[in-house]
Amino acid sequence: MNRIVVAILEDCSEDQYLIKQKLSEVETQTFNVQCFSSIESLANSINLLEPDVLITDLNLPESQGLDTLIKIKAFAKKTPIIVLTGSDEDIAIKAIQLGAQDFLKKEELSSTLITRTILFARERFLFQSALEEQAIRDKLTQLYNREAFEAQVEKKYEEYIRYQSKFALVLIDLDNFKPINDEFGHLVGDRILQLLADRLRMFNRVSDTVARIGGDEFVILAPHINNHQDLALFIEAKKQKLCGVYALASSTEKLLELNITMSFGGAVMGIDGEDTQTIFEKADAAMYAAKRENK
Q1: Domains in the chain, start-ordered, CATH in brackets?
Q2: Which of 6, 89, 161, 177 could lock 216 by a disulfide, CB 3.0 to 4.6 Å apart?
Q3: Alpha-carbon distance 79 to 60, whole Å?
């Protein structure tokens, strides 16, 4: 039986003890309960503890009401939250609207109710997370879609403005992809895109962000690219890993071995431009220049 790690943020030691006592009475599930009396102490421990759920009072000495939830959500992004309330259901409903998964009334605490609420909060959080993940993924390749990628670029651009940390955008477009679709069908074309996405994930630096932004067009957000020499080395490394023979089955279950080539183009923030639109346009122009050379 998996032990559920429960963090409790509550400045009242009696309420802390009550919840711990109720959870210790549960026979069908075991809990590891860790208590905190301040937002700061929770924030300092949450990454190490990695709780499965957080139960929090909204009224603490350093914060009151829904402001408490907002402060907690700023650092507890991966943790489902249950709020403790008195008799005020209105604030509990507002808390759920702000991102809490559920609420518990202090005067109605029981072992069964707390356990059920914890399990429901975890299921709801996982479901919501899955929906959010689907919204930012390209359905065919499961890479980031254009909207999610642009959001990541904006974050990186904010870092550049603040710290002058350069980055590159690298566009990738498959060569002669339409003839492949025409000859072998769209199922084969889709499979090639999926295989390319697999290679992009496999040979991706941890710091890089990869997306599919068009039919056969992909893009990489690459931090720590400080000049054109870095960019050229980065693109050459990608060519070596991504271009070559792709083996897959045809629609008639015959082996296909297709030599896939691609055109690359990149631009460096702070060298080729000072805003994201300019960098994207420069990378796009470089990619199409490479495509003309490849014909």
Answers
A1: 4-134 (3.40.50.2300), 146-294 (3.30.70.270)
A2: 177
A3: 20
Residue 262 · residue 175 · CB < 8 Å: yes
Cβ-based burial of 163 (10 A; exposed 0-12, middle 13-18, buried ≥19): exposed
Block residue for tokens 């507890």 = 76
Tokens of 20: 């711990």
DSSP, collapsed to helix, strand or coil, labels residue 116 as helix
Contact status, residue 208 vs residue 170, Cβ threshold 8 Å: no
Backbone angles phi, psi at 188, to 5 degrees: -65, -45
* Collapsed DSSP state (helix, strand, coil) of residue 105: strand
DSSP E strands in the chain: the ranges are 4-9, 31-36, 53-57, 81-85, 102-105, 167-174, 209-212, 217-223, 244-249, 255-260, 262-268
Grouping H, G, I as helix, E, B as strand and the rest as coil, residue 47 is helix
Encode pLDDT of 64-98 as tens digits. Answer: 999 999 999 999 999 999 999 876 778 888 999 88
Report the SS3 class of residue 206: coil
The pLDDT value given to residue 1: 60
Q: What does pTM read for this prediction?
A: 0.70
Structure tokens at 230: 């870095």
Assigned token pair, 220: 């990489």
- Please return the burial class of 286, using the count of CB atoms within 10 Å of its CB with bins 0-12, 13-18 and 19+: buried
* Amino acid occupying residue 27: E
Closest C-alpha among 102, 114, 107 to residue 23: 114
